Amino acid sequence: MKTIDRWIWRLVDVVLLIAICGMIGLIALQVISRQLGSSVPWTEELSRFLFIWTIWFGVAASFRTGQHPAVTLFTDLVTQPAARRIIDLIPALAAAVLFVIVAYYGWQLLAQQIRFGESSPILRVGMWLATLPLVLGSGLAVLGAIIHGLQGGDYTHAMKERQK
Fold first, then answer.
1. What's the CA gap between 123 and 50, in Å, rounded?
2. 46-64: per-residue pLDDT in tens?
3. C-alpha to C-alpha distance for 64 and 68, rounded to whole angstroms
4. E strands within 35-146?
5. What angle do helix axes 42-65 and 2-35 make, rounded to 10 degrees?
6. What is the pTM of this model?
């Protein structure tokens, strides 16, 4: 199971790296082309798609490693390990419920976009390519939140596991 978990998160990291490098290259191309007097219109749309992939996969990665914003007022007051583990599960479960809902409605939107054949204005690719990361990222965020919650919400433990 740890091997599957490790491969999933490495794949997420690779997607993030490709998307970020792609955005940098596309935006640089757009700036250079504008300076030369001939804008390349498809670079804006493609960089926007890559940005959406970066956002949703970044959300998933942040929940996996516990780097998401959190209010720790109550968890910091609890000193007993058993009670702390229970309290650490509450935000993980709340995040999981939220992202299950987001994934569900994202899936419905994705199906609608495919059914109606919606396409982007410039690249003429399916708009479902902009919705797919919402569904995948939400599903991965559910997985990441649950894993992080089961590990006791300990950020250092999550990072050690990820580096293995």
1. 13
2. 999 999 999 999 999 998 8
3. 9
4. none
5. 150
6. 0.83
